[in-house]
UniProtKB/TrEMBL annotation:
Residues 54-159 form the SEA domain. InterPro entries: SEA_dom, SEA_dom_sf. This is SEA domain-containing protein. It holds the Pfam family SEA. Gene3D superfamilies: SEA domain.
Length: 159
């Protein structure tokens, strides 16, 4: 009887590191020359970094000197509140869209109080929302173009 010894040649494993990317797995596989069919057996490390914009709310108030305050303006369900809110939103929302086209998202009228102090929330999505000074400047410039209400420039408060 003769014993046979078999020796295998050493094998070498190759490790490939894939840099983080925002590409999809299929794109990464196709650009490395690996077929989609082969992809089911291969797991590639990938990092996807989502981009998120910061959301900022600026509370803004201003006085309308020539408007008359009524108790109906205290009630958000009243016709007087809804009409005044729609009038302000309809005119100022466009002003803010034009002034801050890449970051302005919405304007919501929050409340009215005595001597008609108008309070609204402006919503911005951007890594760099406008400053309080920029927002105030937009309102001051809009004062001469609005109708149905007035904006007393010295009464504007942002945040």
């Amino acid at each position: 009887m003769t014993a046979t010894t078999t020796t295998s040649a050493p094998t070498t494993a190759t490790t490939t590191t894939v840099a983080p990317t925002t590409a999809t797995a299929t794109t990464a596989l196709l650009t490395t020359g690996i077929s989609t069919a082969a992809a089911t057996a291969i797991a590639l490390p990938m990092t996807v970094s989502p981009t998120t914009a910061a959301s900022t709310i600026a509370r803004v108030s201003f006085r309308s000197v020539y408007s008359t305050f009524t108790n109906e303006l205290l009630n958000p369900s009243s016709t007087a509140f809804k009409n005044r809110a729609a009038m302000i939103k309809g005119q100022l929302e466009l002003v803010f869209y034009r002034a801050f086209p890449s970051s302005f998202k919405s304007l919501e009228v929050v409340s009215f109080r005595g001597s008609v102090i108008n309070t609204m929330d402006l919503s911005f999505e951007s890594p760099f929302p406008p400053s309080n000074t920029q927002i105030k400047s937009v309102l001051i410039n809009a004062a001469s173009r609005v109708s149905g209400f007035d904006i007393e420039g010295s009464s504007i408060i942002v945040n």
